[in-house]
TrEMBL record:
Record's keyword annotation contains Chaperone: no
Name the record gives this protein: TatD family hydrolase
Top-level division of the source organism's lineage: Bacteria
Keywords assigned: Hydrolase
InterPro entries assigned: DNase_TatD-rel_CS, Metal_Hydrolase, TatD-like
Keyword flag Zinc: no
Transmembrane feature ranges: none
GO MF: hydrolase activity
């Protein structure tokens, strides 16, 4: 069983497409963690679970997120954080959250506003994690673009890793020093195929202890519809195969870079954090 720790399931448009996709990935022995971009979208997705339920087909693990790209204003953020606070005890998977300090993003959500939102999110998670079993940690999926150091500093300040919380940086693009700081803190990374396209990215996955590695696709890249010229089953199968191929290719490349035992390490970590067992 391969686990995609970062999949945007709500980008699949319509209940029937989502049901068909879940059948297709189950046939390929793939599980997904369904990241969301706002607390409101998380609530909507979870409400659809009854419509998606099928015998012998696992539902995704629902992840409660507030993406920095979706912070529109202080007032909007306050409203979404109220939704987050109400939902945080309904799942132990949190994401996509984080910071994005690219100039274009800072024009929409200034640095201080992003930091305020992430601080509040982490405070709510730490409070919720205090009452959970050590065998069932809260798991964060963190977006950090030009901001990895700031995210690590906030994790340290709030003592997140001393709580029952595991931070996972998705598609890590920080500096080597920032990655070292994350590892020392106890964090992990989820490996995206694009990390292998640069010498720095390949070095990073070798720098991280194998038991701190997970797989991710960050798919789909945008909304997926069933168009007039395609069958529902074809669209679902294509999306599922793209996902399975991305995960398998990533694991193959990790094995070539890190050795034959890395697949077992990734499987063990997936089981420990997400209770996903290999077949």
């Amino acid at each position: 069983m391969l686990l995609d720790s970062h999949y945007h399931f709500d980008f699949l448009q319509g209940t029937e497409l989502r049901r068909a996709f879940l059948r297709e990935i189950a046939a390929r022995e793939v599980r997904i963690v369904a990241q969301t971009l706002t607390p409101s979208s998380f609530v909507e997705l979870v409400r659809s679970a009854d419509e998606l339920a099928m015998d012998d087909v696992p539902l995704p693990d629902w992840s409660l997120g507030f993406h920095p790209w979706r912070i529109a204003s202080r007032e909007q953020a306050e409203a979404e954080l109220q939704v987050f606070a109400a939902a945080v005890e309904s799942t132990r998977f949190i994401g996509e959250i984080g910071l994005d300090f690219v100039p274009k993003r800072l024009e929409q959500a200034p640095r201080e506003l992003q930091l305020w939102v992430l601080r509040r999110v982490l405070e709510l998670v730490v409070d919720a994690a205090a009452s959970t079993s050590r065998d069932e940690p809260y798991v964060l999926s963190l977006h950090a673009v030009r901001s990895a150091g700031a995210v690590v500093e906030l994790l340290e300040e709030l003592r997140v890793c001393e709580a029952n919380v595991v931070p996972v940086f998705h598609r890590f693009t920080g500096t080597s020093d920032e990655l070292t700081a994350l590892i020392r803190l106890g964090g992990s990374i989820s490996v995206h195929p694009q990390m292998f396209e640069t010498k720095r990215g390949r070095h990073y996955v070798q720098q991280v202890p194998a038991e701190r590695l997970l797989l991710e696709s960050d798919l789909p890249v945008g909304p997926v519809y069933v168009d007039a010229d395609a069958e529902l089953s074809e669209t679902a199968a294509a999306a599922a195969q793209e996902l399975a191929d991305a995960l398998s290719s990533t694991l193959d490349t990790l094995t070539a870079l890190c050795g034959d035992t890395v697949a077992a390490d990734v499987a063990t970590t997936s089981q420990r954090l997400y209770a996903v067992s290999p077949c």
